[in-house]
């Protein structure tokens, strides 16, 4: 099936809903981009996704990256497409917003969403290169930047992020990889094994720039003791030219359920004691603490939003395919006539469910990017600070709710197709397989739920979280009773009060150190926050749609789009958001059956 | 990882919970099986699954059935294992309960559950052969039985069911395959194309006996006009010996997301006008109506329960793997100590969730089989009738709720493992892929939701459905206030009243022909019925556990098992069942956003 994407919704978000101007008016962008550029960027980007990128998606699935005699070979076409994207400004050079050519995130990410939908594996290659480049842009010396960035941005080199080790997964602080000083204070020897390195190898570029967490001799235990090092596959001389092969060896690639176009590698650093890396940031302080993980996490926060975003992009693409199939497939009768299946109530329900979820989550995601843009670029320091905090709160919601929901949406899209959806004739079975990793990498769902209840709720004495809640409360107060959305605002208001109740319960649990309960109900609390946020975004969008509709006649070609926007909000508020009441009652009752259950009766042996 | 299964729960169901004796005391079984046989049958069956069947599961996934030059070749080992199962009494000869050696369903299915968990693709081969044999047992002439059954039961031949066609999926009545009378009134010529024929070919037997729906010349339109024919791949002479190749050609096999060990075939019947089939049942009546679909559905009803059962078996196996991994994987710290991840609250939550769902759904499934056993074998005709109706009500719940939940449980099991769960090192990614088809075949989830609200709620003037509700109500009345389960019975009682409310709403909608609403809320109504039923089963099991615990000391080796049973019921009643309140409120509010949404705004184009 041809690649189709919901470009209309992206345009609505950027041009009709978000205060995009606030970003474009920042000094950084004011001479570079205007609202008028958006249509062209999106239209061109969509064309590249349709014509250049989407064709290699299935190729990568059927011809996965393979490992033979120490060499990883990417699927046919991956090298060319990667370089096409990077060279033509659709990739890292636009994504790294601090660079001269960098775009505001809200604009670039609307293109990247389509790339991730068109070929998730290729999306990973781009995103990791951008991520590694961003770390160097933010924390590298001027020399580092000159040495590495030009070719990382041109498509000649790619980048990776190395955190996980065989015995250090969710707990990064247990990493065993070591770094040893050399005569050059910036250069360390690296020794250790990293695994699950996405796009860790694959011969699509002449060089790979690994960013590697490792513990220097004076580094303390735990994650605080980790430093961060630039470890190129081929050494890079100070003038940027290639030196000899560094001692980095790919020892295996994973055989995975999906995302097969991108090689997930196990890498050995310093097997022959000849692996060198360049330190980023400062050496450890007197307590043995480094900023390695913090530097990587700064990049990762954006990339966590990015993970939820990729997931939603894949779900959105699956929804697009399902909606087209539902128009074409004739099956069953209504009033004696054979009909396309979109006429059947349950098929419409599934399409509406996918539309509401993907558009609602997309709205939340772009709120996240908008806040990151303001945080990075606003001249108003208070506003920037508040936006950074807001993005930090939204990050776990987007990552976890976005990725978990995407799996369900992919299942639902397959259900629309029925049996053929389970076959490789349609892209849905690949999309379902590809998307499942997104609930795991960049931190599992529970890691993010913990991040929410242990960090984000409590950072800055809890004020940023309360401020986020307050904004939702004000939104309700100002708009409740809006004609046509009365019931929906009542639901949102009730859901908001549920959220407030759960927040109070968490305050109480924190005060009383109820660690078990904090963990037990974390994920469900994240769902409550996410659903309230998504419903509030969809209602905001509905208000914008109502305003526009007031100026359009009902036969305007775009009138239905706005009706669809309002239907999304109503559907979500009435069919999904009530889940908040349910979860709140469950948390309120604080069932302890899990703790009462003897551990050995949880184990099937 | 080694195959592990929750045999203890199966033994509990058969020996400590269900009134198994009522089945064993039926004339049909009373001299053949006793409660004392159950342990041995399960222990031996488990051994066969572990040692013989489970090793080929991954083999089939990595070496799928392939189609080359018109020949389908099954994965290595499949032929041998199929024949081993069939020859040694673990397959069709035991599953066809009307045969001399047939077991009660509740006993055989407890073994089959482990087979389906050990290798779902092999499970399909067995089940389809049993299903085809069962149709012949129930509807074939004595000659048909002599001609086909011996070798179908011995492992020499296999069986298939042929319903779907390219333009007739969910709507079987649109089938285009035709049958033409010959000089022999029992023999018809068959012409047409069938698709999605599971185990439709694969060279694991010397012959394949297809049961094919086709429309005779005098057959009316729609599903009522379809006849059912025995169409062997090689003709079978009246003495049971093999004749020449019948004109049945495999033209393709599907490339699927999972269940790759079993070939899903497209079959052409009568390309050269030389395909013959033997009619089952009578020719069409004067209105052109045949009993073809009804005969197949009689078999399919059991096989729909079987589909939910397979799904739950796969979920249960995934849960077993996740529970073992959670004990072995060391990650993170609690009070300064590195711990296996089972100590982390969210991992325990996931294990508890999988335990409660799989044990609860298993309980509902075995209620279904128990009722089928009584329906088929009780001398008390009223009781048999009531049991048949009860099984008919439970069938859509088991099929739909069982299969949809299994996908979620497989996702959850993978989540326990994290990144490694996404790789082929562990069986979970295969299990997730394998299980997804079960929400689609044997009728999609929506087909079953419609079956519930349009047929099962209303059959027999609605009395059987009310009788099912009444039994749950009585169970609550008798047991509410049980010490230790007070809150759980309150929840069940509230959920029951929700169910009653939704039932009334449906009566009203039926009366007022609100077809759109009937369809729109069907799936959610099925979830309400399922959750009430599962909670009630788990609470019944808890009462049995409480009774046993009263006689055991707390240090008895099996004490924890019973505590686990009670924890399951409490977890489900307090964490899952409240979903019923939520769904009921949604149905009560009857949101119409889906109908208000313009169709073209549901389509991404």
Automatic annotation (TrEMBL), chains A, B:
Superkingdom, natural source: Bacteria
Cofactor(s) the record lists: FAD
Alphabetic keyword roster: FAD, Flavoprotein, Oxidoreductase
Acetyl-CoA dehydrogenase-like C-terminal domain: residues covered: 468-595
Keyword Flavoprotein assigned: yes
Domain spans labelled Acyl-CoA oxidase/dehydrogenase middle: 161-268
Pfam families: Acyl-CoA_dh_1, Acyl-CoA_dh_C, Acyl-CoA_dh_M, Acyl-CoA_dh_N
Domain Acyl-CoA dehydrogenase/oxidase C-terminal positions: 291-455
InterPro entries tied to this protein: Acyl-CoA_dh-like_C_dom, Acyl-CoA_Oxase/DH_mid-dom, Acyl-CoA_Oxase/DH_mid-dom_sf, AcylCo_DH-like_C, AcylCo_DH/oxidase_C, AcylCoA_DH/ox_N, AcylCoA_DH/ox_N_sf, AcylCoA_DH/oxidase_NM_dom_sf
Residue ranges of domain Acyl-CoA dehydrogenase/oxidase N-terminal in the record: 102-156
Molecular-function GO term, any one: oxidoreductase activity, acting on the CH-CH group of donors
A cellular component term, taken from the record's GO annotations: plasma membrane
Organism, as annotated: Desulfosporosinus acidiphilus (strain DSM 22704 / JCM 16185 / SJ4)
Name of the protein: Acyl-CoA dehydrogenase
Entry similarity comment: Belongs to the acyl-CoA dehydrogenase family.
């Amino acid at each position: 099936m041809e690649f189709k994407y919901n470009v209309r919704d992206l345009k609505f978000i950027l041009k009709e809903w978000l205060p995009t101007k606030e970003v474009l008016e920042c000094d950084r962008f004011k001479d570079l981009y205007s609202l008028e550029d958006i249509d062209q960027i999106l239209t061109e980007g969509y064309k590249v996704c349709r014509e250049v990128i989407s064709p290699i998606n299935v190729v990568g699935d059927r011809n996965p990256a393979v490992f033979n005699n120490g060499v990883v070979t990417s699927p046919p076409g991956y090298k060319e497409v990667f370089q096409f994207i990077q060279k033509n400004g659709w990739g890292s050079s636009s994504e790294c917003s601090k660079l001269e050519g960098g775009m505001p995130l809200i604009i670039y990410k609307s293109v990247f969403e389509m790339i991730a939908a068109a070929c998730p594996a290729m999306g990973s290659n781009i995103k990791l290169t951008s991520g590694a480049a961003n770390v160097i842009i933010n924390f590298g010396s001027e020399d580092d930047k000159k040495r590495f960035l030009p070719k990382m941005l041109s498509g000649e080199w790619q980048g990776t992020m190395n955190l996980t080790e065989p015995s250090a997964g969710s707990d990064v602080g247990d990493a065993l990889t070591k770094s040893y000083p050399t005569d050059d204070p910036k250069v360390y020897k690296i020794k250790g094994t990293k695994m699950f390195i996405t796009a860790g190898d694959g011969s699509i570029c002449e060089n790979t720039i690994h960013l590697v967490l490792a513990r220097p001799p004076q580094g303390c235990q735990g994650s605080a003791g980790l430093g961060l090092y630039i470890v190129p596959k081929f050494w890079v001389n100070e003038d940027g030219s290639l030196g000899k092969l560094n001692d980095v060896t790919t020892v295996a690639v994973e055989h995975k359920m999906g995302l097969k176009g991108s090689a997930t590698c196990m890498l050995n650093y310093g097997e022959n004691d000849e692996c060198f890396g360049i330190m980023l940031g400062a050496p450890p302080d007197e307590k043995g603490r480094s900023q390695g993980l913090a530097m990587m996490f700064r990049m990762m926060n954006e990339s966590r939003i990015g993970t939820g975003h990729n997931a939603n992009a894949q779900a959105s693409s699956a929804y697009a395919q399902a909606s087209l199939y539902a128009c074409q497939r004739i099956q069953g009768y209504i009033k004696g006539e054979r009909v396309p299946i979109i006429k059947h109530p349950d098929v419409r329900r599934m399409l509406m469910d996918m539309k509401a979820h993907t558009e609602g989550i997309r709205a939340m995601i772009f709120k996240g990017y908008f806040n990151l843009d303001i945080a990075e670029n606003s001249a108003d320091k208070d506003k920037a600070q508040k936006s950074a905090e807001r993005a930090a709160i939204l990050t776990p919601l987007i990552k976890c709710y976005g990725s978990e929901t995407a799996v369900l949406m992919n299942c639902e899209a397959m259900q629309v197709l029925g049996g053929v959806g389970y076959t490789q004739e349609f892209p849905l079975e690949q999309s379902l397989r590809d998307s499942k990793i997104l609930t795991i990498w960049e931190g599992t769902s529970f890691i993010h739920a913990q991040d929410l209840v242990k960090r984000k709720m409590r950072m800055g004495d809890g004020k940023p979280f309360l401020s986020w809640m307050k904004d939702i409360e004000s939104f309700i107060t100002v708009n409740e009773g809006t004609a046509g959305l009365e019931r929906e605002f009542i639901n949102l208001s009730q859901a908001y009060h549920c959220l407030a109740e759960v927040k109070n319960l968490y305050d109480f649990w924190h005060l009383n150190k109820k660690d078990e309960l904090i963990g037990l109900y974390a994920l469900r609390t994240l769902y409550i926050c996410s659903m309230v946020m998504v419903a509030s975004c969809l209602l905001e969008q509905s208000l914008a749609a109502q305003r526009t509709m007031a100026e359009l006649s009902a036969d305007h070609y775009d009138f239905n789009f706005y009706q669809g926007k309002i239907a999304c909000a109503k559907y979500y508020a009435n069919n999904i958001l009530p889940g908040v009441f349910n979860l709140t009652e469950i948390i309120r009752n604080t069932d302890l059956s899990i703790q009462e259950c003897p551990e050995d009766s949880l184990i099937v042996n």
